């Protein structure tokens, strides 16, 4: 996968976020950035109500 930003732009974003990274950490995170972008795109999709998990408990008859 190819990142949509340059390494310089990634370095700017990391600095702006307050991250103090070594060169090795920067290169590893930059290599992973396209996957992070893909995850963000999946999270920000519109979904219907049926995509929400059910949070309803019903007790069996005779319980409680």
Cα shape: elongated
Major sheet attributes: none
* Structural class by sheet pairing and helices: mainly alpha
Overall helicity:
40-55%
How confident is the prediction overall: mean pLDDT? 87
Task: Quickly list its features.
single chain; 64 residues; mainly alpha; elongated
Question: Overview of this structure, please?
Answer:
This protein is mainly alpha-helical. It has a domain at 7-45. Helices cover 48% and strands 0% of the residues. The chain has helices spanning 7-16, 23-43. It is elongated and about 65 Å long. 0% of the residues are buried.
Please sum up the structure shown.
By secondary structure, the chain is mainly alpha-helical.
